[in-house]
TrEMBL record, chains A, B:
<keyword id="KW-0963">Cytoplasm</keyword>
<dbReference type="InterPro" id="IPR012340">
    <property type="entry name" value="NA-bd_OB-fold"/>
</dbReference>
<feature type="binding site">
    <location>
        <position position="226"/>
    </location>
    <ligand>
        <name>ATP</name>
    </ligand>
</feature>
<feature type="binding site">
    <location>
        <position position="498"/>
    </location>
    <ligand>
        <name>ATP</name>
    </ligand>
</feature>
<keyword id="KW-0436">Ligase</keyword>
<dbReference type="GO" id="GO:0005737">
    <property type="term" value="C:cytoplasm"/>
</dbReference>
<dbReference type="InterPro" id="IPR002312">
    <property type="entry name" value="Asp/Asn-tRNA-synth_IIb"/>
</dbReference>
<dbReference type="GO" id="GO:0004815">
    <property type="term" value="F:aspartate-tRNA ligase activity"/>
</dbReference>
<feature type="binding site">
    <location>
        <position position="505"/>
    </location>
    <ligand>
        <name>L-aspartate</name>
    </ligand>
</feature>
<dbReference type="InterPro" id="IPR047090">
    <property type="entry name" value="AspRS_core"/>
</dbReference>
<feature type="domain" description="Aminoacyl-transfer RNA synthetases class-II family profile">
    <location>
        <begin position="138"/>
        <end position="571"/>
    </location>
</feature>
<comment type="function">
    <text>Catalyzes the attachment of L-aspartate to tRNA(Asp) in a two-step reaction: L-aspartate is first activated by ATP to form Asp-AMP and then transferred to the acceptor end of tRNA(Asp).</text>
</comment>
<feature type="binding site">
    <location>
        <position position="217"/>
    </location>
    <ligand>
        <name>L-aspartate</name>
    </ligand>
</feature>
<feature type="binding site">
    <location>
        <position position="171"/>
    </location>
    <ligand>
        <name>L-aspartate</name>
    </ligand>
</feature>
<feature type="binding site">
    <location>
        <begin position="550"/>
        <end position="553"/>
    </location>
    <ligand>
        <name>ATP</name>
    </ligand>
</feature>
<dbReference type="InterPro" id="IPR004524">
    <property type="entry name" value="Asp-tRNA-ligase_1"/>
</dbReference>
<keyword id="KW-0648">Protein biosynthesis</keyword>
Amino acid sequence: MYRTHNCGELREQHINAPVTLAGWVQTVRKFGSITFVDLRDRYGITQLYFNEALTQQLDEKPLGREFVIQAEGKVIERTSKNAKIATGNIEIEVSAYTVLNKSSVPPFTIEEETDGGEELRMKYRYLDLRRPTLQRNLELRYRVNRSVRNYMDAQGFYDIETPFLIKSTPEGARDFIVPSRMNGGQFYALPQSPQTFKQLLMVSGYDRYYQIVKCFRDEDLRADRQPEFTQIDCEMAFVEQEDILNMFEGLTKHVFRDVKGMEFATAFPRMTWSEAMKRYGNDKPDIRFGMELKELKTPAGALDEHDESLDLVGGAAFKVMDDAEYVVAIAAPGCSEYTRKQLDELTDWVKRPQIGMTGLMYVKCNADGSLKSSVDKFYDEARLRVWADQCAAQPGDLILVLAGPAERTRKAMSELRLEMGNKLGLRKRDEYKPLWVIDFPLLEFAENNDDGGGAGRWVARHHPFTAPKPDQISWMQDPARYPYIKANAYDLVLNGTEVGGGSIRIYQRDLQLKMFEALGIDEHEAQEKFGFLLGAFEYGAPPHGGLALGFDRLCALLGGDETIRDYIAFPKNNSGRDVMLDAPSAVNPVQLDELQLKIVE
Amino acid sequence: MYRTHNCGELREQHINAPVTLAGWVQTVRKFGSITFVDLRDRYGITQLYFNEALTQQLDEKPLGREFVIQAEGKVIERTSKNAKIATGNIEIEVSAYTVLNKSSVPPFTIEEETDGGEELRMKYRYLDLRRPTLQRNLELRYRVNRSVRNYMDAQGFYDIETPFLIKSTPEGARDFIVPSRMNGGQFYALPQSPQTFKQLLMVSGYDRYYQIVKCFRDEDLRADRQPEFTQIDCEMAFVEQEDILNMFEGLTKHVFRDVKGMEFATAFPRMTWSEAMKRYGNDKPDIRFGMELKELKTPAGALDEHDESLDLVGGAAFKVMDDAEYVVAIAAPGCSEYTRKQLDELTDWVKRPQIGMTGLMYVKCNADGSLKSSVDKFYDEARLRVWADQCAAQPGDLILVLAGPAERTRKAMSELRLEMGNKLGLRKRDEYKPLWVIDFPLLEFAENNDDGGGAGRWVARHHPFTAPKPDQISWMQDPARYPYIKANAYDLVLNGTEVGGGSIRIYQRDLQLKMFEALGIDEHEAQEKFGFLLGAFEYGAPPHGGLALGFDRLCALLGGDETIRDYIAFPKNNSGRDVMLDAPSAVNPVQLDELQLKIVE
């Protein structure tokens, strides 16, 4: 036996007990003829006391940082206690020690605040993983996992495994493919989600299914995207949207309670997709702060069939405004005294390519009630007052105005709002504001085909199994005429991050075929690609729906961080390589040849 | 809301309650002017009663098998109760019903004993999965999952995810490879196990790790092998073999208690690999019955360095025996009166190619104490008596004798023993006999290289990270001279099935290099292939070891079955295709080309 106790559990009640500990040397501190060693493991740190004789032994058998040792001795009371650590009232009077393994000097310090840069820490991930931050993060990830499972279990969900080696589906452009030696020239695909399998499980009567499961996408790695990611994947039969929202609101509350001791006192607010786009310019609004978007000019029917046109900027012979499809404003509180320099910086910020605006207008709402704008040449104070009223601006606010094409301008203002939120410290790390965004559009127009060319086409916004709003089914026949058609689809948004999303599914064969038709997939093609699902729908498919939550994102949010990488033990780096194993690797051409890959060149 | 209750929960206490149920129509039974419908879901079956008026409605809106319906009504007491089902005391007096989805007539009956053949049931797996047997199996699988997690959690293990897209390792011959679009011409591999990652987690100080995780092998599908399979994967730091055996004996007992309400009263017996091979001819002996192998002739040092030579068959001028390297017998109880025909059948059985023997000898131990053999020509009764004594044979036993090359003959006798065990009903489905097999060989000689040719070489029997017995380390330098070298490696065997295996790992860089050397891998190659692990060993790797249990096999064993396929929701069929999605599929050559696969032909 290597140890009688771990490094985090000894207390005053153990005084005089003979113990053996094992762990890593955190520090060695010599004071004259005696030595103190901090011994570390996952559970904590315990101080070892080496007397004069043992300190002499240390000269022959020295200890260094990260050495792995075993130490025998007796628990004694510490003379100078350390209230900062749980074992701080005791120490071990060492009688003998063994070096189990030496360590070279680590390339960076294994401490909360390390001196190692990002790249170095990624290269030596096994050392970075020893740091308290990473240890806490992986423990948190495990606790979230447990908490989710306990809730799902109590709610009668079965964890049912679905295959990883599957047939490629039409979203195939992003599929990883896996050649099979046993089926020469043929390939599996890795699943982007267990979507079809969980629907089949509902058809098979499993009623409530969940998995915490890896999914795969062969995409470029944007910030916080990994080619493999983990999903809390769920499906329920005989449910309506309301049942699902309640179930997973319950899950979210349960996990926050378990892992952070935090209560959400009230029900999560709900907002339609149209409203979210209108008020925040974004389908995943950060509602920790207000500063909502206020339209000054908009065409009719921009987001849904109820949308009316508005124009509070016309008639001033100002070409920028007259040409603009869409004009939108926010009122930044307490910013009316922004300097020229600050305003120029903001203007540069919106002109960056990733934002793409040509300029920024402003109206200062001075403390004395007067208004002063960058467009005074065109608009008198009465007109500016109309804008200020529209924004419910207060004296001291700075109204920022963007004008341009609707989609781009809305997105730009959404970004500007978040940027102002950051500047003003309104996006607090320890504040959590969940939101259900509902009634997502069923379809969206893709300008290009998957191969990057072509005339564009209507695609499923969520996926082709999502049910349209029952009273809008007839609109599916002509999406160009009825682009507003909405689905029973919903996202769970937390602090501006999309944590998860789902939908009520189509469960009738006829409606599914109608959906494929709207997507330009005829019955023959549908049969070929989705025959198994259409087949299953012939034998009594129940109404069903589900949700998938991004496990990596949820963990990072619970940890109060924006990057998921610190919550994954072995993430990929920015080029998709494993942080340590340096995958992917080149494969020997001979080995490929054995796989009988046939390529027509 | 689709239902107020499920189909398994209504009881007498609910009588008079208004309820709404939803589910599948199991049966429709018309009696004159009224009708009874059994409604089924995951939770049970509830009888619906349709009165005269509603029975008339059924003519216009008929119900058939597997229709999905919703029924409103009132709970009433049944006049003829059904004690066989939990809801058998009540029924629902239906006031209205809705057909949610129709069903074609299923291709086989959705019942315990179905009329559907294997192939048909695989094709319509979503219907097969509705059968009570499969529903029970998948529920059992889920309960095993929960039970394992609860134990591991209580023991302080963290569930830590390891990557699926990794660098190919030297066992690479069996790796599935995954081309990456983002890294043209390069490939990931799918892990055969998280072995290296879990060792790195030990180096990182996570102390106790587990996962229930998919693993992948691109191999031919023998009975009960799937290209993707699920493993309970564990690793512990600062442990010796004893700690690991105790921990996982505890897990096994816990799961059997949870899932089957079964107690193993005593500690699991342990047997060295050498002893298992000697007594059962097999490293995963089924110890539910005796009929142990008794050697009549064996060379010295067949299995370990203590093995002495023996010859109880020589000096009779019987060439078969004199030429044989190895002669072994079993005594089949109560079989002394086997007929000529039965004996011929057994002889044919051992002559089958997969057994590969040239013949079978026997000695009948008659009830009167006399002996009668098929080799009377060569051996007198005194000599046969020696064999009978060696076998501790009783009157009424039939001694079966095989002679030939040691390895093949031992294996053949092991198979013959199991066959006789089957014939005699000694392998009981509901009896569980666990066994630890320990002290496995460190190395084994592979006759061929991976590519099927070459001169053969020494390979790691478990894997190259397994620690040799400390007192045998020096033998590693010359495996040809010391083939007996044993490892701290162990298997958990249950009823003749290897449920899991593991080992104490090497954690010192020098010893790991020595191991690679024994396997013919020089330091340069080792650095290239395992640099990350050797690197990690430089920074304070703790002693560690672990175990992996076959989750699919464990579930099948707990269910009392031999085939794992009925415990996996969506297994592959014999040619590796998904039972429903018919994966793998052919990939468009153009798509492959986009992946920039380079093949030298």
